[in-house]
């Protein structure tokens, strides 16, 4: 590899105005040497590589070498590497963000031409040395990874972030090479002197490497030389820690809904019994031995009042099952994260005549930690005790068995309600062509053909203009299936806030396309908006949930904010 070279500034040229004399300093008089561009990072180094941020500012310099900020500021700037225009900045803050990782190592003239608020032009030229080097990250595992899975390195280095994104990491950025069952490595370009951060996955953010304390591995190294090697020890890919101390139940269903599933969670492992009865009927008991988590199925009688009594409790819980029929209404929420201040659960509980609640995941922050589940029922009980619950697994559930124990749901499943066929997918998991889930999804889509509306939901959106950007795996493997089998709408979470697409086919607007809805404002902090691509009809930074009413020939979708006001409404036919 090419050696890095340390150079000094070639020149600071074309100083075109003078500020004149300045007031006396302490016992000395300073004379102005004029206004000059002061450019970060070139005031400290001219050796650059990888991702670079260049910021020009105007200072008044003095004959003794001191400087001070002045009231003249840069209004726009053009940045050149040799004869190549790297970019133009005309919006504050004036700066250039560029990536030199694929620029051939060597010495280049770097020039900035600016316009300032005093109406004058200022020019800056220096030589810079581009110094990109090769580095290797190695991992040492405690146990082999599961058969059929691959290890990936994610991180902050230019070659590891998502294409078109400056800082967004990619869970499948670079597949690591297997050396032995317990050793993997990956080699890539990085900047000399760059601090590179790393995480490791098995193909999704739901399967991230952890250390011996079961904490997520997020490590860094400073690239000191060509051939730099950084070694990381991995203890596990997700194991549960602690013991849950929550108590409550939720009710949901699979398939055609002939049976319901009640999942009961108690504070300690002990024998117990759950009694249920429909109004006017005798109680039926279902007992269990020492366990914290218990699920059982029982016949559904739609529209009737269900009575539930837990052995040892003093109250009988009443749960009115929804009536079947058209029209019907369901709620959609996502990314509550068990945030104790989340405003949406209480608002949802005020709704009535709801068939069920669809949740697109991230119920908690770290699904492998028992403590993170302890507020699950206290926060969500207001609506869980009123409505049937149909969640999807988010990446923050981290493939945790707590998810199944507490919600009673598998990773992927389907169900029907009147003229709709719902398919719940786990796109944190393997969705590649030929994978078990891919085969299952296609089978379900074929079965859905006789239904008026085909509705799919999962956590990570295939299209997003927010923090994480588009999910290329979902676009590559699932979107073609959705288009082939005529899916009407796809509901997602993950990108905190709200965004809805135009009908899309092949990523472009089409009257016969699929509408992609991201409703992920259930309670966790909201993401900033990052531009508006052509496919995006509306993106809003707000807490939200949705209320969807299905009739015989259309769906009416209303997005509701944390004040209870509808801020978006549209139809799908």
Descriptive report:
This protein has 573 residues and is mainly beta. It folds into 3 domains: 32-130, Immunoglobulin-like (Sandwich); 132-234, Immunoglobulin-like (Sandwich); 325-572, 4-Layer Sandwich (Purple Acid Phosphatase, chain A, domain 2), CATH 3.60.21.10. The protein is built from 6 helices and 37 strands. The strands form 8 sheets. The protein has a 7-stranded mixed sheet, covered by helices on one side. The protein has a 6-stranded mixed sheet with strand order 25-24-23-35-36-37, with no helix packed on it. A 5-stranded mixed sheet has the order 2-9-8-5-6, with no helix packed on it. A hairpin with a 2-residue loop joins strand 13 and strand 14. The protein is elongated. The termini are far apart. The relative contact order is 0.08. Mean pLDDT is 90; it is low at 1-28.
β-strand number: 37
What's the helix count? 6
Structural class: mainly beta
CATH-defined architecture of the largest domain: 4-Layer Sandwich
Overall mean pLDDT score? 90
The major sheet is characterized as: 7 strands, mixed
First and last CA, distance = 59 Å
**CATH superfamily membership of the largest domain:** Metallo-dependent phosphatases
According to CATH, what is the topology of the largest domain? Purple Acid Phosphatase, chain A, domain 2
* Low-confidence blocks of residues: 1-28
Instruction: Identify the overall geometry.
Output: elongated
